[in-house]
Amino acid sequence: MKVNYVILLVALLTIPFCVSEIYSCSDKAIIDKNFALTKSLDADYTGAYNKVSSCATLSTTNTDTACCYIKLKFKNELYDEKFTHKGCIEVSLENYLLEDADFDKLIDDTEASINTHNGNRNITVDKLSIDCSSKFIQLAGISLLLLLL
Question: Per-domain residue ranges for the chain?
């Protein structure tokens, strides 16, 4: 009976890895490579329901990038309202793997680029956060769990 539970546990834990090949990071992106907002500018949008874990396992278009969770709060001057978009963004590995990499600079540059893009008229970024997690942390947790069984 214990073997059935182990098989079921392994099957449930491998589902995110199987599903991650179906979706790519660009499918859940809220901004494109030119920093234009890709979703509605007059409504809240959530493409990543499980925050970082929704993006961490998605495939990217380039091997030198990782898929990270992004949460963008902005004010639309035209409607005089604030909206929140939650989704994914591709981030270059250089931005957070190198010792001298400045992740805060990446966030500031992204925020400035969104504010100045022509397609984002009447948009002012209120708060922007980018959160990258590692696939290896999830693998280590699964390995530890299997070891304990």
Answer: 2-143
